[in-house]
């Protein structure tokens, strides 16, 4: 059977697409945009034509130079899983393709932007979690290999100190013992929390308020603290001390980032929300609490985003790089996860915590 002859209105067809289709000139001013593109930018056609396309995005997420090169060298390019950050505070992960409409004239560039669907994002999170667990197990194995000889070195130094006839030489054996103790303490931190959670029914907002109080007491830098709580979140079955440590590690990172960047109007916000049908590491939960800590600091350096929760990864000169790794481990003890969304001027860490009753846990 031959296909039926039908008349297709290409204009309607393009406007019906879920992919954002945008055509720009060499100055990145929009010459054409479909409905999906308008929805992406959350703007009207009149406002779009008065502004270059990069005016809608945070500079770090929209590389203008790459588009200029595409025009001058007649090159197309594509980016997978690109995090687009909008100036209105929104952020989304997309696949992007850019190609010249007419390579001979180099006058117009076609940009196709497809938001990544939720299922693909879940798969990506699962893969990242597997990589984090593999790195964590590798470090645990190395830590154990280091820990065993350290005990022998320390013991030998103690025995040697008893045999020394010159008391002045005890300074050197004491140094060996001190350094062995220091390394052992570092290895213990690398191994992370190994105690089982002591869970009980607790109020999430009471835990957050304790964290807020500690952060305020620690501040040697004037930072405004904001709270936005959802009072409908029920009590949860969890270890309050572990949750407090998790949130405290994140909040202290935020305050240190604000202090080091000398932000003009530094703000840390604590926010809670409810999310239904939340998927964490491939498992669906009927109800989850979302605890977010937001700051308006410099953002996470792009080179650290993929390894942020790995042990010993830090951008601070005197940092140990263990705070976020420990926080993620403590979240794991509660079947939860920590997500981060960051660009210059905005960083949000969100703890996703399943709301489980005592009967639903496997303790």
Protein described:
The protein folds into three domains: 10-116, PAS domain (Beta-Lactamase, 2-Layer Sandwich), CATH 3.30.450; 120-191; 200-360, Heat Shock Protein 90 (2-Layer Sandwich). It contains nine helices and twelve strands. The protein has helices at 10-16, 35-41, 45-48, 64-73, 118-163, 170-191, 204-218, 240-261, 323-332; strands at residues 20-24, 30-33, 77-85, 91-100, 109-115, 200-202, 224-228, 236-238, 267-280, 283-295, 337-343, 346-354. The strands form three sheets. The chain has a five-stranded antiparallel sheet with strand order 2-1-5-4-3. Strand 9 and strand 10 (283-295) form a beta hairpin. Helix 8 (240-261) packs antiparallel against helix 9 (323-332). The relative contact order is 0.09. The mean pLDDT is 81.
Per DSSP E runs of 2 or more residues, the count of β-strands stands at 12
CATH-assigned fold name of the largest domain:
Heat Shock Protein 90
Main β-sheet description: 5 strands, antiparallel
Kindly report the spatial arrangement of strands forming the biggest sheet: 2-1-5-4-3
Total helical elements: 9
| Spatial shape | elongated
CATH architecture descriptor of the largest domain: 2-Layer Sandwich
User: Which consecutive residue ranges, at least 5 long each, have pLDDT under 50?
Assistant: none
Q: What would you give as the CATH superfamily of the largest domain?
A: Histidine kinase-like ATPase, C-terminal domain
Quote the average pLDDT. Answer: 81
The amount of helix comes to 25-40%
Structural class: alpha+beta
SSE order, as H and E? HEEHHHEEEHHEHEEHEEHEE
Strand content: 15-25%
* CATH class membership of the largest domain: Alpha Beta
The count of domains is 3
Q: State the end-to-end CA separation.
A: 63 Å
Radius of gyration: 27 Å
